[in-house]
Every structure is written in C-alpha cells, then in structure tokens.
C-alpha cells in the first residue's frame, strides 16, 4: 500500500506530460511488483489508478501491452533531434540562475539530442545540416524540414531545394506578369566607382531616402540647400531642381498631417524628433524609426529672426502640445537637430549649453518639463497653460515676496535654480541630438 502511486491525471497536450508519465509509470511498475500481479490482472489494476479522462483513451484496448503503448504514444511525443540540438546550442544562463542550475538545465536538454557514436564524416554532415536549417531565411522551408524527426544533410538539401523551386514557381500563378508599357523608362545599370568603396558614409547613404529639398541622400541636418536660394521662386531652403515636386510634397505633407492615428503600441518607446530650419518648424512622432504622426508649420517673419535655440524650443512646445494625448504620463525620448543641451528650466526661462560650450538663459515660454529622467535620459514633459499657471503659483507661494519678484528673470538665474530644487521638479536633463 505504501508503494501505491497517485491517480494518473494529466493533460496529454501539456508541456510536462512526458515527465509526469515517466514518473507515474515507474512508480506503477514498482507497485505491480510488490503486489505480484499476474499479467491478466494488470489492466484492471491500472484502470483503477487513472482518471476518467485518461481512461477514455484506453477504454477500447483489450490487452495490457496495448494500454501501455497507447499511453506512451499519448504522453510521449517524438522529439525532433535537430530542434533539440538547436535548443541546446542556444541555451544561456538566465538571470538569478546559478551555475549548478544552468548545468542541470543543459543536462536535461541533452537527453533529447540523440547523440551517438559517429565518425568524423558523419559529425561533419550533422554540423552542416544543423547550421543549414538554422540559418535559412524561409520559415516555410524550415518548417517542412522539421516535420521529420531526423533527416540527413543530403535529404535536407534536396527537399529544401525542391521546396524553394516550387515556392518561386507558384508566384507566377498568384502574380500575373504586368504588360510592358513602352512609355515607361527603364533604369539603366548603375556603375560603381571602385575608388568610392572606402567612403565611410556609403552604406549609410544607401539606407537614407532622397531629400525633398535638394534631391540627394543625406540626413536633413546635413542638407546643403538649407541656406541656398532657389533661382525659380527666390525662396531659401531648396534647390531649383526639386521645385517641380514642391506641390506634390505639400500635398503629401498635408495628407500625413491630417492622417488619423489608429492606435499606438505603448510597449514600443516613443521618440519625438524636431527640426527647426530658418523658415519653418517640424516634428515627427516615431516608433522603431517609423513615423506615427507628422507636424509642421511656417514661421512668421518675426519668429524667423529668433535664435536657433528658440526656434527649436517652439518646435518642442508645439509638438508636445499637439501630441499631448499620446505623451502625457509616458516616458519618451526627445531628439533635436540643433546640438543644444538643456540643463535646467523654470516656467519662463531655460538654462542651455550651446554647441560652443557656452551657457546662457533663453526665453522658453509655455515650456514646463517635469519629472525625473529615466535610464534613457528621457523625462515626462508637459506643455499646457494650466500647469504653467500652477507651477508659477507654487513658486510664488514658497518664495518670499522679494524672492518671487526676481524668480523668473535670467539675471539671478543661478540663485533661482537653487530654489527650484526645493520648489518643483522642473529639471530637464540633456538630450543629445541625432547626428
């Protein structure tokens, strides 16, 4: 009675069904040995030690051997040797797992790898086979190869090549050939100058789309047309060669600005990227380097006379106000074209460090960043008039009347900055610009 096993009740589709069966079957065999049960009574004993759900799988069996075979096929799924070796080769020590636990994990994985004594040639082919299946691009071909528990290199290559050929040929059934249009211009082959192969920006330029303002490939901050005068319209900011696409560009820009954002995945970090050329300000809300929303407007004549720092601040403020419903309460990253480092700020003035390392206070109305930065150097930002009023009232309430009079002025900014540490957490840490 002491050796009587627990009632066997497991889900055959569970991940540990094999482990539970192996343990139960071992204890059941010990129980039969202790009872000295004859072979013709083992089925009856087993039926009393399984649940009703498990019994449904063996109810039609007549012999004890058939019952055991049915339970083994039910709980012990065949292991794919190639996949098992992939799990072993990619297994790494987890956080909080000591070396002894890691070693035990490896010993458990190696049991399904089917290692056996082989010669050098067989080991050579098995290694290439595993790398071949692991490194191929097509998941469909890999899935078909993994349907077999064990497959040699020659068979894997032959089957994969046949599947690849069939896959490419099947495309002709679903994608009919487009008739040739004689008015369409064919792109001529591009000749590559060997002397240009060593340029550091060659690979980077290939991944950057053409600039709308000059027609070349480069980051917007390095556009040669930012200070150029168009000979056609006498406007600054683009070359004459791209003037014809201006109307199309404006149309597409309006479409992007007015496009509805269906949803935002807040599991992916948000990035607000701003740009402030001479005549306009613009911003994009990005996720994984892909634009989610776009904002831009033209600066009025008085705003064009402001410093680049203040123009960048305008872009930040208006972008945060426009996308407030996305950014409020969410940590995000802010990227600016101007390499300006914002050290601290109060509701009206910001203490910044310019690219020449010079520090000065600039007017930043309506900008009220708050929140401590996280590990990425980002912080919660707020651009709302109500919060600005609240922030100013808090500052005046906690300062004396004499101190409050000079609090928002840049003259005594260093003194005011010390007071801010105990007034309100209006700290904006440095944000490095994208080069």
Automatic annotation (TrEMBL):
<feature type="region of interest" description="Disordered">
    <location>
        <begin position="403"/>
        <end position="435"/>
    </location>
</feature>
<dbReference type="InterPro" id="IPR050951">
    <property type="entry name" value="Retrovirus_Pol_polyprotein"/>
</dbReference>
<feature type="domain" description="Reverse transcriptase/retrotransposon-derived protein RNase H-like">
    <location>
        <begin position="246"/>
        <end position="333"/>
    </location>
</feature>
<protein>
    <recommendedName>
        <fullName>Reverse transcriptase/retrotransposon-derived protein RNase H-like domain-containing protein</fullName>
    </recommendedName>
</protein>
<keyword id="KW-0511">Multifunctional enzyme</keyword>
<dbReference type="InterPro" id="IPR043502">
    <property type="entry name" value="DNA/RNA_pol_sf"/>
</dbReference>
<dbReference type="InterPro" id="IPR041577">
    <property type="entry name" value="RT_RNaseH_2"/>
</dbReference>
<dbReference type="GO" id="GO:0003824">
    <property type="term" value="F:catalytic activity"/>
</dbReference>
<dbReference type="Pfam" id="PF17919">
    <property type="entry name" value="RT_RNaseH_2"/>
</dbReference>
């Amino acid at each position: 009675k002491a050796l009587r096993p627990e009632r066997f009740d497991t889900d055959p589709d569970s991940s540990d069904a094999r482990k539970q069966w192996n343990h139960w079957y071992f204890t059941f065999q010990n129980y039969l040995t202790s009872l000295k049960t004859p072979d013709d009574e083992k089925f009856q004993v087993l039926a009393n030690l399984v649940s009703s759900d498990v019994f449904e799988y063996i109810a039609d069996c007549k012999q004890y051997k058939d019952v055991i075979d049915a339970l083994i096929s039910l709980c012990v799924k065949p292991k794919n040797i190639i996949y098992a070796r992939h799990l072993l080769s990619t297994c790494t020590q987890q956080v909080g797992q000591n070396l002894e636990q890691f070693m035990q994990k490896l010993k458990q994985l190696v049991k399904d790898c089917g290692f056996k004594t082989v010669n050098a040639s067989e080991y050579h082919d098995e290694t290439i086979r595993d790398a071949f299946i692991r490194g191929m691009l097509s998941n469909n071909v890999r899935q078909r190869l993994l349907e077999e528990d064990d497959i040699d290199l020659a068979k894997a290559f032959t089957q994969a090549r046949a599947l690849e050929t069939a896959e490419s040929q099947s495309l002709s059934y679903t994608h009919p050939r487009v008739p040739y249009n004689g008015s369409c211009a064919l792109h001529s082959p591009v000749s590559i100058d060997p002397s240009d192969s060593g340029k550091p920006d060659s690979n980077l330029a290939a991944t950057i789309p053409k600039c709308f303002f000059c027609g070349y490939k480069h980051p917007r901050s390095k556009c040669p047309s930012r200070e150029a005068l168009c000979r056609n319209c006498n406007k600054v900011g683009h070359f004459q060669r791209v003037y014809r696409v201006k109307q199309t560009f404006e149309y597409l820009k309006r479409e992007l600005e007015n496009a509805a954002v269906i949803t935002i995945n807040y599991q992916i970090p948000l990035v607000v990227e701003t740009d402030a050329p001479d005549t306009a300000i613009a911003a994009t809300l990005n996720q994984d380097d892909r634009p989610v929303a776009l904002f831009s407007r033209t600066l009025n004549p008085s705003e064009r006379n402001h410093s680049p720092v203040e123009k960048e601040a305008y872009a930040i403020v208006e972008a945060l106000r426009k996308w407030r419903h996305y950014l409020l309460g969410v940590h995000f990253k802010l990227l600016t074209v101007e390499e300006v480092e914002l050290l601290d700020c109060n509701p009206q003035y910001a203490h910044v460090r310019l690219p020449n390392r010079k520090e000065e206070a600039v007017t930043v109305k309506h900008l009220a960043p708050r929140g401590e930065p996280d590990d990425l150097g980002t912080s919660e930002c707020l651009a709302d008039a109500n919060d600005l009023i609240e922030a100013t009232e808090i500052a005046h309430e906690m300062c004396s009347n004499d101190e409050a009079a000079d609090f928002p002025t840049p003259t005594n900014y260093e003194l005011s900055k010390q007071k801010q540490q105990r007034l309100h957490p209006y700290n904006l840490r440095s944000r490095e610009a994208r080069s």
